[in-house]
Specification:
It is a single chain. By secondary structure, the protein is mostly helical. The protein has a domain of 213 residues. Helix 2 runs parallel beside helix 4 and helix 3 runs antiparallel to helix 10. The longest helix is centred in the C-terminal third of the chain and has 33 residues.
Length: 483
């Protein structure tokens, strides 16, 4: 079943190659084929979720392909990877729909790129081999690099693409060295074999630093944050959505799957260090967010701040903290794409600028949009009845049990997130409508459906988190280590 999730986007890409991009009718066919392919994948992932046994912490739907001599192709999921898989298949069609009317040149290769991105992202979350994890982890970089250069809108998009590529590639080289060291030490890169192996503390520390550097760039953590806001600002909207919703979650998944699972002693040793870095990142990113004038850069910096709280929860060594970190990561995967659609799609398509000072009073002509924008803005601050609220609270409660000072500093992110979120909404939505702007239309049916689709899980899962938590309990409990 999981192998289908990898094969279907590839089959869809091959079918796209057979269609000529020479008429409007064929372009519509290509868009529809892409969306149908992604929706089939989403339905399969829903079926996997329904068939998943939440009372077990073992890997399920395991499939092995043993024909490859150089690599152990082994896939499967547990309670942790299941929800990241669902997030990927849920957000991918939304990303393509967000640019449904904007991309007309080289449309075929744009759609193929996002089908391949979906397959590669799914691979990160379902492979059970450390070398394959590295391959899928890195393979999204060339695709993103080309998407930003070819379809990006910023004048500095080549520089932004290079920063994205070089930052993440340089950090991941240390992960590759750590994987090779594990292979020489254990004799395998299979997840289950590594988890059963005894690695002494000194070796764990070296391996931990190698993996951590790769994941810190991807999170990103201070001082390795310079690439993210540039990549968001110059990327097409669909690229920004995937980057915020799922690609930033590679690091979250890596912390859970590799650092805590395979190197628990080193994780315990370095926990004060990573908690300190997370607090510095949280405060730095929040203060940097407040002074941003580009709306997409502002949302990008807010992503860094929220991911810092995720880190605090994940490294709390408590069930509440780890589950809270996962919930907040999933909530960020819904709310951040919605905010990018609001500022980088709806507003930018109508006005042609993302500079906050040039836009005000949109509620005059866009009342429906202003209501939805307000709801997502408040969700971003973590108000009750949203998944963001539960994720932040559980993360901070979890870290409070280990270090109340770190938890108190982490709670400052709630106040700061309210400051920059309300500032953005108030400046754009209220005040006298700018005399330099022409009257604009309210959101279209397509834009409304995209935002509602992201709003429903944000609110429903915030009210009924048991839907997710039931599948997490057993898998998360295996990550706890004795101090």
């Amino acid at each position: 079943m999981l192998s289908l999730l990898l094969l279907i986007p590839i089959i869809g890409s091959l079918l796209l190659l057979t269609i000529q991009e020479d008429s409007l009718e064929n372009k519509i066919k290509m868009k529809n084929l892409t969306l149908i392919t992604m929706l089939i994948n989403f339905l399969i992932s829903i079926y996997v979720w329904l068939e998943f046994d939440s009372s077990s912490s073992e890997y399920q739907f395991v499939y092995e392909f043993i024909e490859l001599n150089y690599c152990h192709f082994n896939i499967g999921i547990d309670g942790i990877s299941l929800y990241f898989l669902l997030l990927t298949t849920f957000v991918s069609p939304i990303a393509v729909l967000s640019n449904y009317n904007n991309i007309n040149n080289n449309l075929k290769y744009f759609l193929i790129s996002f089908l391949l991105l979906e397959a590669l992202q799914i691979g990160v979350f379902i492979v059970l081999d450390l070398l394959l994890f590295y391959i899928f982890f890195e393979s999204v970089l060339p695709v993103l690099f080309l998407i930003i250069i070819v379809y990006g809108s910023g004048e500095a998009r080549i520089r932004s693409a290079l920063l994205l590529f070089l930052y993440t590639l340089a950090g991941s080289l240390f992960m590759l060295l750590a994987i090779l060291q594990i292979y020489s030490y254990v004799g395998s890169t299979d997840f289950q074999i590594i988890s059963l192996s005894e690695i002494n503390l000194d070796t764990q520390k070296i391996l931990w630093l190698g993996f951590f550097l790769a994941f810190a760039v991807k999170t990103p953590l201070w001082p390795l944050t310079g690439w993210l806001y540039r990549a968001h600002a110059d990327s097409p909207l669909a690229g920004s959505i995937l980057l915020a919703a799922t690609i930033l979650k590679f690091a979250t998944y890596g912390y859970l799957r590799v650092l805590i699972n395979f190197l628990p002693d080193a994780t315990n040793y370095f926990s004060p260090l990573i908690q300190t870095i997370a607090i510095i990142t949280l405060i730095y990113a929040s203060l940097a967010t407040i002074i941003q004038q580009d709306t997409k850069a502002l949302i990008a910096y807010s992503s860094i701040a929220h991911m810092s709280v995720v880190i605090l929860g994940i490294f709390s060594n408590t069930i509440q903290g780890i589950e809270g970190g996962i919930l907040l990561a999933l909530a960020h995967g819904f709310v951040s794409p919605a905010l990018f659609i609001c500022v980088g799609g709806v507003i930018y398509d109508r006005i042609g600028t993302r500079i906050i000072n040039y836009v005000r009073g949109l509620v005059t002509y866009m009342p429906v949009f202003s209501i939805l924008f307000l709801i997502f803005t408040l969700s971003n601050t973590g108000i009750p009845l949203t998944l963001n609220f539960l994720g932040e609270q559980l993360s901070l409660i979890g870290i409070w049990e280990r270090n109340p000072i770190i938890a108190a500093l982490g709670a400052t992110g709630i106040v700061l997130s309210a400051a920059y979120s309300i500032y953005l909404y108030n400046r754009i939505s209220y005040g006298i409508y700018s005399p330099h702007l022409k009257p604009v239309k309210d959101i279209s049916r397509r834009e409304f459906n995209l935002l509602i689709t992201l709003l429903i899980p944000t609110v429903l899962l915030g009210i009924f988190p048991k839907v997710i938590l039931d599948g997490l309990h057993f898998s998360v409990s295996t990550l706890l280590y004795n101090i």
